Amino acid sequence: MFGKIRKAAARLRGTCRQDTGMVTSEYAMGIIAAVGFAVLLYQVVTSGQVQAELQAIVKKALSARM
């Protein structure tokens, strides 16, 4: 009885471990995508209109009465 359970558990572990994690090329593509998104976000945040809006928000928060 226990022998059959052990064999079934070993087969299950074997099938679950076949494809785990990413390969190096997938990591590289993920890093490239993340860098591209970071560059895009940096360009948006440092644009004139967004920068002015962020400064207005900070000034309003600092001048608020408590």
List keywords for this structure.
3 helices; elongated; mainly alpha; 66 residues
Report the principal-axis shape: elongated
**N/C terminus separation:** 72 Å
* SSE ordering: HHH
Structural class: mainly alpha
Which percent band covers the strand fraction?
under 5%
Q: Which sheet architecture does the biggest sheet show?
A: none
Overall number of strands: 0
Radius of gyration: 26 Å
Helix content: over 70%
Tally of helical runs: 3
Poorly predicted ranges: none
Mean pLDDT: 83
Describe the protein:
The structure is a single chain. The protein has 66 residues and is mostly helical. It is 79% helix and 0% strand. The chain has three helices and no strands. It has helices at 2-16, 24-45, 48-62. The chain is elongated and about 75 Å long. It starts with a helix and ends with a helix.
Quick recap:
This protein is mostly helical. The chain has helices spanning 2-16, 24-45, 48-62. The model has no long low-confidence stretch (mean pLDDT 83).
Provide the fold topology.
Elements: H1 2-16, H2 24-45, H3 48-62
